[in-house]
Amino acid sequence: MEGTLDKSAVRAYLKESLPDYMVPSYLKPLDSLPLTTNGKVDVRALPEISPDELAEGAYEAPRTRTEAKLAEIWQDVLGVSSIGIDDHFFEVGGNSLSLIKLLSNIKSVFGVALELNSLYKHPTIRLAAQYIVTEEYRRASEEDGIYLLNEEKEAHIFAFPPIAGLGIVYSELAQAIGSHSLYAFDFIESDDRIDRYVSLMTSKQQEGPYVLFGYSAGGNLAFEVAAELTRRGLEVSDLILLDSYKFDSAVVRIQSADTANVYQDILEEADARPFYRKLFETDDFKDKVKHKIEMYSHYLNGLANDEVIGANIHFIEADKAGEAPKAENPAIVPIVDWSDYTTKRYTRYQGFGKHGEMLAPDYLLSNAAVLTNILQQTRKITVF
Question: Which listed site, 65, 95, 141, 222, has its alpha carbon 20 to 30 Å from 31?
Answer without folding.
Answer: 95
